[in-house]
Amino acid sequence: METEAQTLTYAVIGATGKSGRRVADLLETEGYDIRRLARGTSPRFDWEEPEGWERALRGVDRLYVTYVPDLAAPGSDAAITRLVEVAREAEVGRVVLLSGRGEQGARRCEEIVLGSGIPATVVSASWFTQNFTEGALSGALQSGFLAIAAGQMREPFVDVDDVAAVVVTVLTRDGHEGHRYELTGPEPLTFGEVAALLTELTGRDIRYVPMDFDEFHAAVLQEAGPETATLLTELCREVFDGRNEKPTDGVREILGRAPRGVRAVLADALTAARRA
Ligand SMILES: NC(=O)c1ccc[n+]([C@@H]2O[C@H](COP(=O)([O-])OP(=O)(O)OC[C@H]3O[C@@H](n4cnc5c(N)ncnc54)[C@H](OP(=O)(O)O)[C@@H]3O)[C@@H](O)[C@H]2O)c1
């Protein structure tokens, strides 16, 4: 029998990204009507082209928002303010926003969404474990060097499949409106410990190279240009000061089970990559 939530249209902004793809896939598997939104979809959604947002959100009942490059980036608050205006006009009935844990700039965007008048939930996540296998840090698998300005700080990396399962729960079930959930994995690890795990699981030598902020900025500048270099350097400076080391019980609170640990997630991802 169809529940009321199953008769609604769900949209995912960033539906080809790490969390968005998983959220869209889970919703589809559970039988929900789903509209995937990104720059290559129809309708198209581009953060740089607000004139197309109304068309993308027309007829949408529930919306999952992932913002790029990051809610801590300059201009994110203006974009999120405009998005919630368009969503309100389109009569979107529920919004879930993905946020980055411990980022001051992201908190401004969270407040905009939570104060928008649209029933909303914020899911604030620690760094994804999948950054090492499908994200910005996956180059270490080829180069053998995991280079980042994180010192000996510990991060309770979270499984993005856990994040997606939480997002789907709060999107489809009542009672989470107005809440902000912090999601982490079960144990804080240094990047050196992750490099050691990657070495063990791949059988290849992968070393952590702790950079200072200037070295890191120069390295990213070469690869990705000045905006990304400044954004990522400032993010490292902000969040790797110890504020995010402590794990939370957000995943257990929503899913009723423990979050998956880094070793299990990496092992599964590397096995899947070998089979592909
Ligand atoms: N990665 C993490 O560890 C982490 C942790 C916590 C929170 N977050 C938050 O997650 C968000 C995205 O991060 P992610 O690492 O998951 O991203 P991602 O995997 O790189 O995915 C980015 C998504 O955004 C789309 N996109 C790129 N440029 C776009 C544009 N101009 N307009 C519309 N869509 C665009 C991409 O699709 P197309 O290229 O197909 O358009 C893709 O679907 C950020 O707000 C970040 O703060 C990330």
Automatic annotation (TrEMBL):
InterPro entries: Ergot_Alk_Oxidoreductase (IPR051604), NAD(P)-bd_dom_sf (IPR036291). It comes from the Bacteria. Coiled coil: none annotated. This is NmrA family NAD(P)-binding protein. It comes from Myceligenerans pegani.
